[in-house]
Design a protein that fits this description.
Layout (H helix, E strand, L loop, with lengths): L4 H9 L4 H11 L2 H6 L3 H6 L4 H13 L2 H10 L3 E4 L7 H4 L7 E6 L8 E6 L5 H16 L3 E4 L5 H11 L4 E4 L13 H9 L3 E4 L9 H14 L2 E6 L5 H11 L3 E4 L10 H8 L4 E2 L3 H7 L17 H9 L7 H8 L3 H13 L3 E5 L2 E4 L1
Parallel strand pairs: 3-4, 3-7, 4-5, 5-6, 7-8, 8-9
Antiparallel strand pairs: 1-2, 2-6, 10-11
Helix pairs in contact: 1-6, 8-9, 11-12
Length: about 350
């Protein structure tokens, strides 16, 4: 895939926010023309600090767009900007989406209902049980879980999602040229192999820093219909994600723990301030989001044809009408209707009224 050398260059510098990107467009009209004027004066005009100006110009002098594009191809990583059609629509709705994204895996899953599941790195046994309580029902409902691939709750969310046959998106606080922590490299491979996604706004060689994890949290919140805090002490980064989600007008849920447990002090603070809704069961979270929770104990549906497999893949607990299904499947309406009728008889689809369909 051919990428704009100028877009690759600006991404590698890690200096553009949405506001700065728009300022460049207003003055120069394109990243290509802006790159021709790249220098200290331009960067200072964008508000970059002197240290950042020096680092950016050093990187720009050494940057080889062709070599960088080859590295993307070799690692099977896709690159795009927020003016590209592939950019996640839900993330575009927030005030500060990253101008550039790198993706490895199935990017289309971000158009499915996504819920951010976040929590502490110091996961307790109770926290592990909480993950096992929520993730299976979310997977059964067709929800994509979103987390950060850190140790603790993040990694457990990814593992449990894969174990249940679901798909997960991991947003990384560094470039996709590495996996941090190293112990999660195998898990990252499993995510992609299982139809999931690794996502980052940072250039390939970018190392993790404190600010990159905060930036990562806003992407998790922006991609998700809601954020569920599974286990969080005071000062946890999961609370930053919750705060960002609230700022974006998204729902926040928190799981309660024992009143004496410091690992749940952050969750209890969210509940006490009424910034989060109580999450005691996955069905209650799904209902709050307007989804139809799957029937407990219902036998797993097995598609009997390629058409059933395709339709089932886009059905979720979020009701969709026929026009939405046509748009997502690129299939004729009559054909989809016939498939839905057969799936309803075998328990794979359910008509919830008003021409709206969910998974059975």
């Amino acid at each position: 895939m051919a990428y704009s050398p100028a877009a690759l260059l600006w991404s590698s510098l890690s200096v553009l926010t949405k506001e700065r990107y728009e300022a460049l467009m207003q003055v120069y009209g394109s990243l290509e023309d802006a790159a021709k004027h790249l220098g200290g004066e331009l960067l200072r005009g964008l508000g970059c600090r002197e240290e950042t100006v020096h680092e950016a110009l050093t990187l720009a002098d050494a940057f080889d767009a062709e070599r960088y594009a080859s590295a993307l191809e070799e690692k099977k990583i896709r690159f795009f900007t927020f003016v590209d059609a592939e950019y996640p629509s839900r993330l575009l709705q927030v005030a500060d989406p990253p101008p550039f994204l790198y993706a490895k895996g199935d990017l289309s899953l971000l158009e499915q209902p996504c819920i951010g599941l976040v929590g502490t790195r110091g996961m307790s046994r109770y926290g592990r049980r909480v993950v096992g309580h929520f993730v299976p029902d979310f997977v059964a409902a067709g929800v994509v879980t979103v987390s950060g691939l850190a140790v603790g709750i993040d990694a457990e969310v990814a593992r449990e999602t894969i174990r249940c046959g679901g798909r997960t998106a991991a947003v990384l606080g560094h470039g996709l040229g590495m996996v941090y922590p190293r112990g999660n490299r195998g898990l990252a491979d499993q995510i992609v192999e299982g139809g999931g996604l690794l996502l980052s706004e940072f250039p390939l060689p970018k190392n993790p820093e404190k600010y990159t994890f905060v930036a990562r949290n806003r992407v998790i919140a922006g991609l998700s219909l809601a954020t569920l805090v599974l286990e969080a002490p005071e000062g946890s980064g999961a609370l930053i994600t919750a705060d960002l989600a609230l700022g974006y007008g998204r729902d926040v849920f928190a799981v309660p723990g024992e009143v004496f447990d410091p690992n749940y002090a952050g969750c209890h603070a969210l509940l006490k301030k009424r910034q989060a809704m109580l999450a005691d069961h996955p069905a209650s979270v799904l209902r709050e989001l307007g989804m139809v929770a799957p029937v407990a104990g219902a036998p797993a549906f097995m598609p009997q044809s390629d058409d059933e497999n395709a339709v089932y893949a886009v059905l979720t607990a979020m009701p969709q009408d026929l026009d939405q299904l046509v748009g997502r499947l690129r299939m004729e309406a009559g054909r989809i209707n016939a498939v839905l009728t057969m799936m309803e008889l075998s328990g794979g689809a359910k008509n919830v009224g008003g021409g709206l369909w969910v998974r059975g």
